[in-house]
Fold this protein.
Amino acid sequence: MSLKAFHLVFVICTTLLCLFLGVWTGKQYLAGEEGDQFQLIYSILSFGGVILIPVYGVYFLRKLKGVSFL
Amino acid sequence: MEVPYTDTNRPDTGLYNAKVGIWLFLASEVMLFGALFSAYILLRVGAMPGHWPTGLLDVGPGFVNTLVLILSSVTVVMAWASLKLNDFKKFKFYQGITVICALLFVVIKSFEYKSKFTHHDVILKDGMRVDGHLVEETDEFIVLSHPVSYPAEKGIRERAVAIKEAEHHAHEAGGDHHHEDRKIMLDDIEKRTTWGPWANTYLAIYFTLTGLHALHVIAGALVIAYFWGPGSKMWKTHPEQFANRIEVSGLFWHFVDLVWIFLFPILYLL
């Protein structure tokens, strides 16, 4: 497996981590007391990652079109 | 004598030798970290009810370190892609950022460690427990900053709850407990310890897992820094072999980052 393929595995894992973080921090924010703004910021950042990281993955694949997956 | 298959693929494996070597090495690393992850799970499920601390670690530094490592993975792969596209200047740029990210990770981690080693857990003779950071120590007393006190039998699991309760009470009383240092006479202390790996099972496995991971980060950073600096001369003489070396170091770096992606949620969040 080349670095290109391993990087795609990494992109998938990072997206899943962001999804988990977004849900987890969102739940913490909703369950917590007022004023716990950090949880909300973490949640927004994480859900932003869920969108941006796959977009980056597609960009990366296009950039290294000619490089093998092996 | 020329070492074979450093820049061309072996006919039987279809890969150059270093790539086979790094994957065999990474397989052994998976077993090492896999064993430690298993140890963590078994310790956690085997803990007595109410004796496994959650919410003990500060999520902020862990979150920033996660972002730093994700960024470093992008730059390490961009450095390799730049070589594949014959752009040596960009390679230097991306490789340099990777080294900076690795150093930043280690610096943040060391601050986290320092915070744990200066955190004192004091059990008083009157049955109360005080958590706080040591700011002064004499032959007669110690002074703790950010003190939180609660009944000793509550145990470490209750610490996060106790802090919130203390903050709530201080808020109701119109003050902020974080601004008051607490002086404790040594004669009043039953037992005291710091939050090192000796404090409890959770911190023992925390320091083992994150310490081993940090050693991997340091080792990877040294290799990447070498290829950014003196090792980059090889680009002029053996460009294909140099690109392969960068790919191999990038594979190792990705593995280290993937380990952190699993470590962060299980240690900091769950």
